């Protein structure tokens, strides 16, 4: 997989601090880059950056590269890396922490599509349905048309049931989704406020030289009158 070179100017310490302040961030500086997480990951071969690389990139504050990588969306949350890390770092939870930040930044990775379809199927039915997952994902991903003969073959063999197994009571599940959505909107609001503060401070900085110049002009006028 071809990767763009990472330049030193890509470093963003605000992003690094934002992640380090979260409940998973505390131990990230202690990573020894042993690679046990990457070696344990069943899907690292599909990732732009392995979990080990992602942890290092967070340490360096490589915001753009981290948030636009497919790694956070490819992770299956199997927890292999988290249970094996000798430093007690939780790369699994790091992925989950980075997803809402990427969404709040408006960074849409194509791998997020499956994540969205999966969440909506679970939210509506309480259980995963292979048929709903594949059919809805195919609508968002034209490449999936190539898989149609395979899907039909699976259906013919009864491996892709059309029946949807719904959960009887989805009240608790709805509460979990609401909590998640609340958390995401909190992050979004925080980001928007921080951006507004940065804009205000930039405007103040722009004003300062103008005000100084005006003051100098006034002083010159007073001196000339004397
Ligand atoms: S297993 Fe833990 S210490 Fe080792 S590279 Fe991964 S995150 Fe770092
Ligand atoms: S939790 Fe994610 S990153 Fe960790 S081993 Fe599993 S798939 Fe890989």
UniProtKB/TrEMBL annotation:
Protein name per its UniProtKB record: Cytoplasmic heterodisulfide reductase subunit hdrC_3
InterPro entries: 4Fe4S_Fe-S-bd, 4Fe4S_Fe_S_CS, HdrC_iron-sulfur_subunit, Helical_ferredxn
GO cellular component term of the entry, any: plasma membrane
Similarity comment text for this entry: Belongs to the HdrC family.
Organism this protein belongs to: Candidatus Methanoperedens nitratireducens
Pfam families in UniProt: Fer4_8
Domain 4Fe-4S ferredoxin-type: 20-52
A single MF term (Gene Ontology): oxidoreductase activity
Disordered, as annotated region: 187-226
SUPFAM superfamilies in UniProt: alpha-helical ferredoxin (SSF46548)
Phylogenetic classification of the source organism: Archaea, Methanobacteriati, Methanobacteriota, Stenosarchaea group, Methanomicrobia
